[in-house]
Amino acid sequence: MYNFDFVKPSTVEEAVAALADDEAQPLSGGQTLIPTMKQRLNAPETLVSLLGIEALKGVTVGGDSVTIGAATTHATVAKELAEAYPALAALAGNIGDPAVRNRGTIGGSLANNDPAACYPAAALASGATVVTNRREIPADAYFEGMFATALEEGEIITRVTFPIPDAAAYVKFEQPASRFALAGVFVAKFADGVRVAITGASEEGVFRWSEAEEALSGNFSAEAVSGLSLDPDGMMADLHGSAEYRAHLAKVLTGRAVTAAG
Amino acid sequence: MKVTMHVNGRQVSGEAEGRTLLSAFLREELGLTGTHIGCDTSQCGACTVHVDGKQVKSCTMFAAEAEGAEITTIEGMANADGSLSAIQQAFQDYHGLQCGFCTPGMVMAAAALLEEIPQPTEAQIRHHLDGNICRCTGYHNIVKAIQAASGQPVAVAAE
Predict the structure, then answer these.
(1) Is A76 in CB contact (< 8 Å) with chain B?
(2) Nearest by CB to B130, which of A8, A30, A97?
(3) What is the domain class of A5-49 according to CATH?
(4) What is the ipTM of this complex?
(5) Tell me: domain A167-261, CATH 3.30.470.20, correct?
(6) If you classify domain B2-75 with CATH, what class do you get?
(7) Which of A34, A45, A49, A101 to probe the B interface (max B CBs under 10 A)?
(8) Chain B neighbors of A75, CB-CB under 8 A
(9) Among B80, B98, B57, B71, which Cα is nearest to B13's?
């Protein structure tokens, strides 16, 4: 990979100042960015590590929500939210592999918005709020397509707040080599309705399946979605699965997630 | 830039560029070639080391990120008297390796698992080894070695 300058500030303000340079990029756990740089798909002149900023780390459990610092690793979320938000903890505990989970962070995952990443599904289905150094962004306004988000230049995620649903589950079908989701479905049942977010399937990245949400809000059971279908048009297609396969898989996994959520 | 860290209990310093990976720093700057580079793409786990007690892939972390950290590599796993640790001995006893290339990473992954779950089930062991690839053993003997190292009975006794 091309060489770069490495800086490791200890406050958000210092990080933002370092990122003012056009050729600077933030580095969180690096589990996606470093492989991308090795392939020379990305060549920043300066990398600004966010892992020296203690204010970005840690998990806080409130009465009806949990707040996760952007630089909190998947392993920490898996461990510390097992009781407060088990579906989210389980999702975090199945990202990648143990070594990846010890480095990768929630802020990095959401900022990257890989179309097959797990966290975007949790954030969108939970109706999470992405908090940055500038503002609070509701999940419904945050995800803008494959690798695209509402984040602006110089804007970094500081924390993410998840409302805790009455019932929730995430089910993914792993692409066995990459362990990314070939399709993954997060179902969250709240008092005022059900939210369903699907990752891994669409060319537009994570999306809400509103038809399933309506059906499940009236009848929270796998049968409620068994007669529905997702349009394969706009689904990703590659050697691992056709668009039709992914559309069908996402529907089947939605039913499984509902069953798992109970 | 100069990078300083504690490796296997000893403070060490060396020169690194921003792009120098921890795996390259350990092998080329410190001469600790027990940490293997298999795929260099974060897939195979042969480069697994512990950073501040956490299992990580040293090919997917910059040396500069390890400034001031406590690193343990396979060279730090043997007992103080030079004899094999329980995990290493179990890999030998249960034939948990053939070519041995993946073994440093497997041992480091196993050590991290047993630190967290002292008596893991077979399913927990297999799940934990998700990020460590072995192309010789078919994994069964690695799983048995880790079961044995954790003091649990092993389904099929070693010859």
Answers:
(1) no
(2) A97
(3) alpha beta
(4) 0.95
(5) no
(6) alpha beta
(7) A34
(8) 54
(9) B71
